[in-house]
């Protein structure tokens, strides 16, 4: 907001000064010509009066009267000889031709001579030692400061209004980004930022429609696929019961494995769609994570020859839905021992606000370019989808959704073991 204030304030100042300069150039603001005429008339009248005094009382009395008069009107009077080198040729020529020469209207600076003594030139200018002149100068600066302060106040008021409206819009954007696809910005004139709110709502509507269409399609495919799969399974069982030649058994076993893989993928699709629902709310219970993960690793150890090890703080508590969090960790651990050389290590630690579950393995590292996209559905680094590699590219996507529903975050980095390290960051139990 500081940058926005500086931008608004500097723009207002620039517009103000440009307007003043433009008005001055077109003589809408400046009155220099009128001031010069007025000053010339005043000097001419003063000369005539002083000349009258000189005629009746003498040149000395005339000069004394001139000194007293200029002092009373806060002007400094300087006496020059007409041949004085400090006087420019323009001044000398002006005084010779017209009896006076105006140098600077704003400072009331002028030169003139008296008829009683044409060999003397008098110069006048605002007296810098005069309290009156100093007061006027201070007031001019005070007016300038007041204008700048007024512009600053106006800028702050404008910024305050804009910032409040932007804060409302930002709150709506954050809600939409975190899965509340019903979030919309207010289009009231009290809350709108130009057409930005309306444009956001149009964009949000289109995105929501696309996402809903995608979810509906996914659910429909998953549900409708169950029936033909069930029929194939029934036919396969009937074929098996009817008697099959030994050389045909390998084909039946292959079909059965394909059906199992397809059924597993459909179950994961339905689970992922369920977790994506914005109205899905979890019942969270403060739980000690160490014994929960220790029990899980004990069961998973039967599935692999790789070493599964739990380390770290055995007293950390976090509000979780046990079955869902175990689903997330099992997806990551299974993915880990599939590619690990010898071990998968799960570490429990914490910082000031969060509990961290770090799951690392000593397999090949994952390139940093994939650290974000690997959590997307159906993304696999090896691009291979077969029974030997296993999986459907949904395990990490499901894990990320589960952690997100726990108000946490799932990230990927490098581990000290040489392979990847998945970090589940969960809020601490209060």
UniProtKB/TrEMBL annotation:
It is an enzyme of class 2 (transferase). Pfam families: HATPase_c, HisKA. Coiled coil: none annotated. Residues 220-430 form the Histidine kinase domain. It is a multi-pass membrane protein. It is found in: Cell membrane. One of its GO terms (cellular component) is plasma membrane. The keyword Nucleotide-binding applies. This is histidine kinase. It catalyses: ATP + protein L-histidine = ADP + protein N-phospho-L-histidine. GO terms for molecular function: ATP binding; phosphorelay sensor kinase activity. Residues 160-212 form the HAMP domain. The chain crosses the membrane at residues 141-162. PROSITE patterns: HAMP (PS50885), HIS_KIN (PS50109). Its EC number is 2.7.13.3. It comes from Shewanella insulae. It comes from the Bacteria.
